[in-house]
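Predict the structure of Chromosome (Plasmid) partitioning protein ParB.
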Amino acid sequence: MSAIRAYLKGLVEEAKSPATSHLPLEALLPSPQPRRRFENLEPLAQSIREKGVLQPLLVRPLGDGRYAIVAGERRYRAAKMAGLAEVPVRVLDLSEKEARLLALVENLQREDLNPYEETLGVLELLSEELGKTREEVVALLHRMHNERRGKATHNVMGNPEAKRVQEVFQALGRMTWESFVQNRLPLLGLPEDLRAALEEGTLPYTAALELKKVKNLEARARLLEEAKGGLSLRELRARVREVLVKEKAPPPWHKEVATRLARLDPESLPPEKRRAVEEKVRELLALLGGEE
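Done. Here is the predicted structure for Chromosome (Plasmid) partitioning protein ParB.
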């Protein structure tokens, strides 16, 4: 087992250990994490009222009587809703980087993390491991993907960074890095309406990627509602193809003429061409006037 896989495994095993104490909620501080939304907290709050907090929160001391929540913010929020004054915790002596890694790994193991949040979480984990920005990590992944497909000869795959990327994905066990590049990185470019639906859990990521192809806002909004209503991916793909064919079709000739006339600056034309255009326009206006 590589060093990074052993390290991540050690953090996760540490997180499974029993609680070491109880702390008041007012002493706990949430930390940034991949999860963006905390929905459906009331069922968890009701369970906590009946059974208490069954899994301890993971926290690390800040040195001033307060503790940063490393993992368990959803339980923390639900405990507040349930009216609890304190919760069971496991206090871990972690550095700030170790805490971020543990929070990322712990969250990425959860099944209720939506694909968009999961994508950001994986990128954040890679960013921590490689010491790179998210943009630099994305660029590295694309270079790896291009080389694997024979579209580049940079020999990125032989670099230590590429090996660490592969080790992280092996340690997480969620998907391969190739699948991540192909199916998850495109989620970063989703328009706001699709990203919101994905984060709300009302739209599968496969449907979001399909709808991303539709640039017409009205058509996309209509298809989005149909997808939320249970339209199958096969049916959605057929509808999207129909919309894309219409989007690529040239505009009717009369609309093209009207558009070009609206943009026309007669003063910029040579005198002879200007007189000819004006004559044709007068003829067209006379003809249209006769029809009325």
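Strands lie at 21-24, 28-29, 57-61, 67-71, 86-91.
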